[in-house]
C-alpha cells in the first residue's frame, strides 16, 4: 500500500474555504470573561457555558467582584456545568490572583496563565489567541481528533499534537487553523460516524485514505 503523505497547504486552503468565518464560540467581552468561560468549558459544551456566563458576569463582572464571591453562590450559578464544585473554587482563586498579582488584568504570557488554578495549555492558548491575538493552537478533543485523522499530527498525546501542528502549520495561521479544525470536528468529522462520504477533505485525508488507498 502506498504511504499516505499529507498535503498541508492544500488541507489548510480547503479548511479556510469551508470555514472562513470560524471564530471562538464562547461569548465574551474581554480577556477576563474569556478566561473564566474557558475554564468552565472543560468537560462542558460551549453552548452550556454561554447559557451560564451571562448571569455569572452580571453579578461578578470583574476579577475583584468574583474574588470576593462565596463558593456556594458560584457553585449554584454554574451547577449545570461539569465539575462545577472544583471550577467554582478555581475561578474564585484565579480571580484573587489576578487582583493580587496582576492589578486585575489577565496576563498575556503562557507560563503565567498556566500557573493559574484551572488553567492548562488549552485554556491558556485559547486566551492568548482570542483575547490577545497571539498565534496559538489550543488542542481540544476536536483538534486532536481531526488533526490526527487528516495527517497533520500523529500522536495520542495532546501536547505532542500541539507541537506537531506548530511545526506543520505556518505561525500566522495557528489561531485560524485551530478554529477551522474545531468547526470541522463539530460539523463533519465526528468522533463516531464521521461524514467521510460527503467530506470536502476526503481526498486529502489520511483517515479516509486508509479505507480507500490509491484514490
What report would you give on this structure?
This protein has 215 residues and is mostly helical. The chain folds into two domains: 8-21 and 139-209, Endonuclease Iii, domain 2; 31-132, Endonuclease III, domain 1. Helix content is 57%, strand content 0%. It has helices at 8-18, 31-40, 46-59, 63-67, 71-77, 84-102, 110-114, 121-132, 141-150, 158-168, 174-187, 206-209. Helix 1 packs across helix 11 (174-187) and helix 2 packs antiparallel against helix 8 (121-132). The protein is elongated. The termini are close together. The model has no long low-confidence stretch (mean pLDDT 95).
Task: Work out the number of β strands.
Answer: 0
Q: What is the SS-derived class?
A: mainly alpha
Question: What is the helix/strand order?
Answer: HHHHHHHHHHHH
Number of domains: 2
Ends apart, CA distance between termini: 12 Å
Write the CATH architecture name of the largest domain: Orthogonal Bundle
For this structure, what is the CATH homologous superfamily of the largest domain? Hypothetical protein, domain 2
Mean pLDDT: 95
